[in-house]
Predict the structure.
Amino acid sequence: MLNSQRIFVEAIRRYCADHHITVEVRADGWLIVMRGGGKRHCAFGYDLGLNSAVAHRIANDKSATADVLAMADVPCVPHVLFLNPELNAYVPSRGSWGAMLALLQQHPQGVVVKPNEGTSGKSVFLVSSAPALELAVNKIFAAHASLAMSPFLAIEHEVRVVLLDGTPLVVYGKDRPTVLGDGEHSLLELALTTLPADRRSAVLPGLFADVEKAVLDAIVPAGERRVLNWRHNLEFGARPRLVEQGEDRDICIALAQRAAEAIGIRFASIDVVRVDRGWQILEVNSGVMMEALSKLHPELVQAAYGAALDKVFG
Ligand SMILES: Nc1ncnc2c1ncn2[C@@H]1O[C@H](COP(=O)(O)OP(=O)(O)O)[C@@H](O)[C@H]1O
Ligand SMILES: [Mg+2]
C-alpha cells in the first residue's frame, strides 16, 4: 500500500472502530467497504463516496474545471485541453500543434503543460520554447490521453482548502523548499548542505530535472533566496503550514466555496493560488489526500475524514 494511502485507510479504520462500523479493505487499500447502523458504504482510491460521479469527473479534469469555474465567474487559472492524436477521431482536423504553438507565442513568460487528469505534480512541465514544448507534449502523450496548457503564472502562495458541504475543515499553505545564498556556495551545495536529510530525496530529483547544470553550479549571491522547485506539490518537498486566521484565509475559503458550488462537489481539496496579489483557483481534487499534513497534524486529518464519514453514518 502507498504510504499516502495508508493514512487514508488508517483514518477510516479508526473512525469505524470508534463508531462500531465493520470495515473490510481489499485491493491493497484501494477498495474499502464499511457496514454499520443499517448502512453500507464504499470508498475507492481517495474517494470517500460523497461526490456525484459528474462532480468527481469534472474535478478530475483540469480543463473542464477551468471551464465550469469561468462560466460561474470564479477566478481561475485557464487550462486549454488538447487530446492525444491517438484519439484522432475526436481531434479537430487541423490538428493541435498549431494551436499549441500559438498559445506559447501569446505567453512569452512560458506555458505550463500537464496531464489533463494528472495529480501530485507528475509530468508538469514549464516550457518557454517550441522544442521544449514538443518534448513535454511527447512525454505527456506517451502516457496520457489528454493534456492541459496554461500560461505560466508567478505564483506567490498556494493554499489548499479542504471543504465539506461548504464548511472549511483544514486550510494550509504549501511552502516550497528554498535556500538562502551566501555568496560562497553554489545552488547545489546549498541544497545538499541545508536540506534536512529526510527531505533530500523528495527535493533533489526535481532540482536535477528542472535546473540547468550551469545554474546548479553557480554561486548564489549573498542574501538571495531561491526556490528549489517551482511547483508547490508536497511530493516535491513543499511543506504544509496551517494558514492563520485573517484576510487571506477568508478569501481562500470564500473562493473555494464558490468553486465547490459551481462544480457541485461536496468533499474536496481545492487549491487556491496568489498571483499579483489576487487569488484564483488552480485546481479542485475530489480525492482528499493529507499524508504530508498528517505528519504534522494527525488530529486534524482524522477529524476531517471523520467529519466526512459523519455525513454518511451520522
Ligand atoms: N499555470 C501555472 N503557472 C505556474 N505554476 C503552475 C501552473 N500550473 C501549475 N503550476 C505549478 O505546478 C504545480 C502542479 O500543478 P497542478 O495543476 O496542481 O497539477 P497536479 O494535479 O499534478 O498537482 C502547482 O502546485 C503549481 O506550483
Ligand atoms: Mg496540484
